[in-house]
Structure formats: C-alpha cells, structure tokens
Specification:
The protein is an alpha+beta fold and 418 residues long. It is built from ten helices and 17 strands. It folds into two domains: 286 residues, PPM-type phosphatase domain (Phosphatase 2c, domain 1, 4-Layer Sandwich), CATH 3.60.40; 105 residues, no CATH class. Helix 1 packs antiparallel against helix 2 and helix 6 packs antiparallel against helix 7. The termini are far apart.
C-alpha cells in the first residue's frame, strides 16, 4: 500500500486593510510554497515572486530534499539582495519563505521568517516551524508569556527573511508522512487574525480543503483582515492500487509540465498546478499494518447525579453585575496605570519609537499604549544583540525612555554584544 497526495489547494486574499497583495504562493507537486513579501512600493510583491519563481530553476539531480530546499532559498535570497542593492526604490525589500517538498513517504520543509507550516494529524494540530520574529524570540527565551505574545504590539517585526542580507540561514526539517495528514502553509495574515484553536476547528469541520481554505480566509477577514491572507494545503492518503507494476514514488519530476492557472481571489498571485492524477508516495511502515477490531465494553451503570439546585434570578443578576463591575475596575486601573509608563518599540515602518502606556492590546481593538515620538533609526540597523535589549518593551519612566531614544539617534548607546 502506498501514499499519495489526494487533495491540494492554494488561495490568497488581499485582506480588508491593504490595497495590494504582496504574498505569493506555488502549487507545483512535489513543491508547495508560501512567501510573504515586505518593503512597500511593490517591492514586497517582487521579492515574494522571486522566491516562488526560483523553484522553477532548481536542479533536477540527486540532491537530498533538505539540501534542495536550502539551495533554492539561498539562491532566491541572493537574487533579491542583488536587485535591492541595484535599485534604490527597492532597498530593504525581502520576503518570508515556507516551502514543503513531498518525496517518498516523507515531507521536507524549508523555512525563513514568520510564515508557518502546520500539520493536522488525528484531529491534533501542530505547528512544525518556528517563527523568526522578535516576539517569538522573547517567548522562547522566557521573557514574555505565550498569552502576552498573542497581543504584543511588535508581532510583525521579523528577525530573518530572504533579501535583507547577502546570506541567510534556512531552517530545514523532514517529517514522516501518514495517511490522513493535512499540511497547512500560511502567511501571518492568517495566523495574526485567528488562533490555532480556530484554525484547527475550521480544518476539522470542513469536508474538503477547498471549503476549509475559503472558511479560513473568511474568518481572518471577519477578525479584521489587517494583512494579506494566503493559505496552501495538501492532504496525504492511501493508494490501494499500489503493487509491483505501479512504481510511483511521489517525485513530481516525472510529471508533465504543469499548466499556469490562477488560484485565489487576487489576480496578481499566479499558481502552477499539475494536472495529472495525485502524486504517489511510498507508505510508511505503520500504513501497511492491518487494523485490529476492538470489542467495546458495556458502559458501567452510573449513579444518578444530584440535580443542581436552581439559583434565584436575583442572585444571578447580582452576580453578573458584580462581575461586570470587577472587569470595569480592572480595565480602568490598567488605563490609569498605562498613563504613567513608557516603553520603546517600533512602529509599522520599522523605526524605533517612543510609546506611552503598556505594550498590550485588549479585545475589540482597545490599545493600552499610544505613539509619542518616532525616531529616524530603523530597528534592523541596531545589532541583534543590542536590539533585543533596546526593544524588550521594558516599562520605563518618561525621562529614561526618552534618553534611550536620543542615545540611539546620536549613536551613543553602549554597543553591547553584536
């Protein structure tokens, strides 16, 4: 018995707050790719397209999958870097890259940035990639909690991408496949708008990946749609026709050239999708084991549980009023406390910025901070060792926070570790 890719889909949406789509995606078995561009003035769109186009140029030799993915990413990085260096209008452009390659009974991943790859296996969702972002690093080192990371104002600051530097470090992984696995590659325009629990629930509640992709994009837009939203998914399944005469190993190199088709709701995002039948891959050892039939034990009789006493309606009303009052008191207390604190972070343009308040967002878009002053210092111009110390969102007095920003502008900050 063998495995094959039984279903795959890719969709992209501009979102509700952007006027252009800088995401790109690729469906070209054995490759599945998501790239999220950055840089503005169409530079991000160019960078993400370069990243996906590089998969057409990859060498068809015996290079192991992880090395092939790393080679493709490094080549795309050099092309983007050289183009930005030669064109002032594209200076600083870059892109994330998350790519999957299905070979044999394994799935190999190549990853740079904060786009993600998830796997749904036996109704359990698992994030397979690590975000290369400032907030993720703070969480991994224990400086902030996972709950704080979800509402951190600097969630969009990434620490690794294709393009900003002449060389790039690429994370690679190889995972054994299993029938029924669903792999999800997505940009942060999806994960920044919905939780992992929502993502898992949507995947489990839709029969097809097409329906799930539509539902995911709809949910992200309903939550605000602050960024471009891109999702690529594929499902592995069993192939009962496997035998001595089949010989399919899942390598798309033997397939006819794929057709150029348009996928998703954005005309700028083109996807190459192979037209032949699903790719076949060898099954893992556990896929060939026969299932044993388990006998169900009769349920043991349970004692009747005592019926809960009904609470008086007045008590319920009083309890609700007290709860609302407590929440209001907490919110008011946080607001007044935030007026006394300051911290240093970055704004949407990536510039070091002085904020008043505390670095948290409340539900319904309530922010506990406000921008006071944006410097001319880009965050990525600060050496990495010093950057974490400066942008750790430590609460400071107004004088301390202002002095720190002024030192950065004058280049007088103690360099610390680079």
């Amino acid at each position: 018995m063998a495995l094959k890719i039984v279903e795959h889909v890719g969709k992209s949406d501009v979102g509700r707050q952007r006027t252009s789509n800088e995401d790109s995606l690729l469906l070209d078995p054995p490759f599945f790719v998501v790239a999220d561009g950055m840089g503005g003035a169409r530079a991000g769109e160019v960078a993400s397209q370069i990243a996906t186009e590089e998969f057409d140029k990859e060498p068809r030799d015996e290079m192991p999958p992880e090395r092939r993915l790393e080679s493709i990413a490094r080549s795309a990085n050099r092309r983007i870097y050289d183009l930005a260096a030669a064109d002032e209008s594209r200076r600083g452009m870059g892109t994330t890259l998350t790519a999957a390659m299905v070979v044999g009974d394994e799935v190999s991943l190549g990853h740079v940035g904060d786009s993600r790859c998830y796997r749904l296996r036996d109704d359990e969702l698992e994030q397979l990639t690590n975000d290369h972002s400032l907030v993720a690093e703070l969480e991994r080192t224990g400086q902030i909690t996972a709950e704080a990371a979800e509402h951190h104002p600097q969630r969009s600051i990434i620490t690794r991408a294709l393009g900003p530097e002449p060389e790039v470090e690429v994370d690679t992984y190889t995972i054994a496949g299993k029938p029924g696995d669903v792999y999800v590659l997505c940009s942060d325009g999806l994960t920044g708008m919905i939780s992992d629990e929502e993502l898992s629930s949507i995947l489990r509640s839709n029969e097809t990946l097409e329906e799930a992709a539509d539902a995911l994009i709809r949910a992200a837009n309903q939550s605000g749609g602050k960024d471009n939203i891109t999702v690529v998914m594929f499902r592995l399944g069993e192939d009962g026709s496997g035998g001595a005469g089949d010989g399919g190993d899942g390598d798309a190199g033997d397939e006819p050239p794929p057709d150029e088709t348009l996928v998703g709701q954005v005309s700028a995002t083109k996807v190459r999708e192979a037209t032949p039948p699903p790719t076949e891959v060898s099954a893992p050892p556990e896929a060939t084991k026969s299932r044993t039939t388990r006998k169900r034990r009769a349920p043991r009789p349970r004692e009747a549980a005592p019926r809960p006493s009904r609470r008086h309606p007045v008590r319920r009303i009083v309890g609700a009023v007290v709860a609302v009052a407590l929440v209001a008191a907490i919110v008011v207390g946080l607001y007044f406390a935030s007026r006394q604190a300051y911290f240093v972070g970055t704004n949407n343009a990536g510039l070091v910025t002085l904020y008043r308040g505390v670095p948290y967002d409340l539900p319904l878009g309530v922010k506990l901070y406000s921008e006071q002053y944006a410097s001319g210092v880009p965050a990525n111009a600060i050496p990495s060792g010093r950057r974490k110390r400066v942008l750790d969102h430590e609460l400071r007095s107004e004088n301390d926070a202002s002095d720190l920003v002024r030192q950065l502008e004058r280049g007088q900050l103690d360099p610390g570790p680079s």
